[in-house]
Amino acid sequence: MKNIAVIGSGTMGNGIAHTFAQFGYQVNLIDVNNEALERAIATIAKNLDRQVAKGTITEADKATTLKNIINFTDIKAGVADADLIVEAATENLDLKLKIFKDLDIFAKPAAILASNTSSISITKIASVTNRGDRVIGMHFMNPVPVMKLVEVIRGYATSNETTSIVMELSTKLAKTPVEVNDYPGFVANRILMPMINEAIYTLYESVAGVAEIDTVMKLGMAHPMGPLQLADFIGLDVCLAILNVLHDGFGNPKYAPCPLLVNMVTAGNKGVKSGEGFYNYSNGLKDAVVANKFSK
To answer: Is the distance from CB of 138 to CB of 114 less than 8 angstroms?
Structure first.
């Protein structure tokens, strides 16, 4: 495994590219939007600067990492020589299926196809390819360069060999891989999203306010961030999409998204990415305040 392709240059995509490049892999970062690619490289450079300032890497390390990344807007050219392709596009089933159909055609036969999906079935994704044994989930956590966990999701047809390769590769990135089977939400989001949804219900039913709910969970349960602010950071639209996957996949009403969450996403209040969710971020992430909608 020397050549890595990453599809999607958003928050997760650029973080994944950053991490592989920092550990010496050649990375092709692919996005149809050239401006998005330029923003991604700028973000990676900024995050590398933080690492330099902390003393975890040197200026030479930063330069080498950036040199290891090449941008592509053409998926066919970008994946041609890749040993591993990590898809990190928007959490949309139809889009992912289209990408994997293309990857099955464009990637070399021995290439492993991985998805960074946080909830969509790896088995379903693999079904549109002719290499189900080489399709797997690599669910990185955000921010990718910092967070140690990688959920490695085995689809129904994923081979032992593919799983072993990806587990070992994740370890070489200084991550801790955890192997899980392919059921809705896997482990992380099957547990996390109902908690976030219940926190939103607690607000919706006027049990307590935004700051109060988050304070209880931070001080009482030793969570570094309250569930409502965490939802803002994940993206309320992403939370809604994952809850819908869980609800559809299990057919259990306990996974039904709170009506408040549905309304907020419909109104365009998606959290940090839109500037407001349960908190308002107009003064920056560190100076966030409870959104006027929820202030007393």
So the answer is: yes
Tokens of 109: 């036969």
Dihedral pair phi/psi, residue 19, rounded to 5°: -65, -50
Amino acid at 45: A
Q: Encode pLDDT of 140-158 as tens digits.
A: 999 999 999 999 999 999 9
Helix (H) or strand (E) segment spanning residue 7: strand 3-7
Closest by Cα among 188, 98, 100, 71 to 140: 188
Residues labelled as active-site residues: 118, 139, 151, 189
Q: Which two tokens stand for residue 145?
A: 């360069």
Q: Which residues contact 38 (CB under 8 A, 6 or more apart)?
A: 71
DSSP 37-95: HHHHHHHHHHHHHHHHHHTSS-HHHHHHHHHTEEEES-HHHHHTT-SEEEE---S-HHH
Condensed to tens digits (0 to 9), the pLDDT of residues 197-221 reads: 999 999 999 999 999 999 999 999 9
**Cβ neighbours of residue 35 closer than 8 Å, sequence gap 6 or more:** none
**Three-class SS state of 148:** coil
Q: What are the angstrom distances between the C-alpha of 27 and each of 17, 263, 288?
A: 6, 39, 35
Residue 112's closest CA among 89, 138, 135? 135
User: To 10 degrees, the CA torsion angle through 60, 61, 63, 66?
Assistant: 180
Adjacent-strand bridge partners of 90? none
Q: Is 278 helix (H, G, I), strand (E, B) or coil?
A: coil
3-class secondary structure, 4: strand
